[in-house]
């Protein structure tokens, strides 16, 4: 197999750094391992961010997410680890990660973690008639 999992995240220059806009990425097949039992945990992860000067390259993100497949991690820890790594790579104005884990033992878990640059304020919501 040529392609391998990787913890390296690649970036590219934001083509519109003067404008606030949202990038939404859905990852419906995320897997990691339960650190207690070693059984697989499955999640749908949604990443939303407002880029500053850099954007996240998607193939490297796919390989990054694949790297968790054999890693034991609590839901809360893995969600925050992903947020921290992406924030370190691209320093976005804002980022939210929502990790919706499939049922295990009759319990669903959703973890939402956010980052906001201290110098950024969300623009006022425009309501159209």
CATH architecture descriptor: 2-Layer Sandwich
CATH superfamily: GTP cyclohydrolase I, C-terminal domain/NADPH-dependent 7-cyano-7-deazaguanine reductase, N-terminal domain
Low-confidence stretches: none
- What is the tally of helical segments? 2
Radius of gyration: 16 Å
What would the CATH topology be?
A: GTP Cyclohydrolase I, domain 2
Mean pLDDT equals 96
Shape, principal axes of CA atoms: globular
Order of adjacent strands in the largest pleated sheet:
2-3-5-6
Q: What percentage of the residues does DSSP assign to strands (E)?
A: 35-45%
Helix share bin: 10-25%
Question: Termini, distance in Å?
Answer: 53 Å
Order of helices and strands: EEEEHHEE
Description:
The chain contains 2 helices and 6 strands, in the order ββββααββ. It has 129 residues and is an alpha+beta fold. It has one domain: GTP Cyclohydrolase I, domain 2. It has a 4-stranded antiparallel beta sheet, covered by helices on one side. It has a two-stranded antiparallel ribbon with strand order 1-4. Strand 2 and strand 3 form a beta hairpin. It is an enzyme of class 1 (oxidoreductase).
Topology:
Blueprint: E1 11-13, E2 23-33, E3 40-50, E4 54-56, H1 58-66, H2 75-90, E5 94-104, E6 107-116
Antiparallel strand pairs: 1-4, 2-3, 3-5, 5-6
Active site: 34, 41
Keywords: Cytoplasm, NADP, Oxidoreductase, Queuosine biosynthesis
Catalytic activity: 7-aminomethyl-7-carbaguanine + 2 NADP(+) = 7-cyano-7-carbaguanine + 2 NADPH + 3 H(+)
